[in-house]
């Protein structure tokens, strides 16, 4: 008789979630390459921070910055809400960024500028399910971007 490990399904689901979040790193790298910025690398320490933070906010899923040592992009959504979807939302702000004035024009752009920030070289993302069934995602960047007076690239 074959024995079944009761932890195999949760471990498989965790692997799928982590792999999906690591795809957000690839999505961000494609945007960085587009503006001539070097690649960003997945970092387990930064990812552990992100996971700890989303776990602490999972109940209410209010988008409140952690105000810690890392740059941060937060979002939430329902259904099949993955790291790739989150990155796509942040990158959609690109049209609001004016490089010449180094400012947001016509809407939010700071999530986009963090995605392409030239000095951010390490990334970690995590997600947790909210009480209402939505997903809360945090991507954290080291070193942080959006430094006042500096261009992202």
Automatic annotation (TrEMBL):
Q: Which residues belong to the signal peptide in this entry? A: 1-27
One of the GO BP terms on file: defense response to other organism
Q: Do you know which Pfam families this protein is assigned to?
A: CAP
Cited Gene3D superfamilies: CAP (3.40.33.10)
InterPro entries attached here? Answer: Allrgn_V5/Tpx1_CS (IPR018244), CAP_dom (IPR014044), CAP_sf (IPR035940), CRISP-related (IPR001283)
Entry GO terms, CC: extracellular region
Q: Which residues form the SCP domain?
A: 19-149
Question: Which keywords does UniProt give here?
Answer: Disulfide bond, Pathogenesis-related protein, Plant defense, Signal
Q: PANTHER family of this UniProt entry?
A: CYSTEINE-RICH SECRETORY PROTEIN-RELATED
Q: Which family does it belong to?
A: Belongs to the CRISP family.
User: Protein name, please?
Assistant: SCP domain-containing protein
């Amino acid at each position: 008789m074959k024995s079944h490990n009761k932890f195999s399904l949760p471990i498989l689901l965790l692997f799928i979630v982590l792999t999906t979040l690591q795809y957000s790193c690839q999505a961000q790298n494609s945007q960085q390459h587009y503006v001539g910025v070097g690649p960003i690398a997945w970092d387990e320490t930064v990812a552990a921070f992100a996971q700890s933070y989303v776990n602490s906010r999972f109940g209410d899923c209010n988008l409140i910055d952690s105000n810690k040592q890392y740059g941060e992009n937060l979002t939430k959504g329902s259904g099949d809400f993955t790291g790739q979807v989150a990155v796509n939302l942040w990158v959609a702000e690109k049209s609001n960024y004016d490089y010449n004035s180094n400012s947001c024009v016509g809407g939010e752009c700071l999530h986009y500028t963090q995605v392409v920030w030239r000095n951010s070289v390490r990334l970690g993302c995590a997600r947790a399910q909210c009480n209402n069934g939505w997903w809360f995602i945090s991507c954290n960047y080291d070193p942080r971007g959006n430094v006042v007076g500096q261009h992202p690239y």
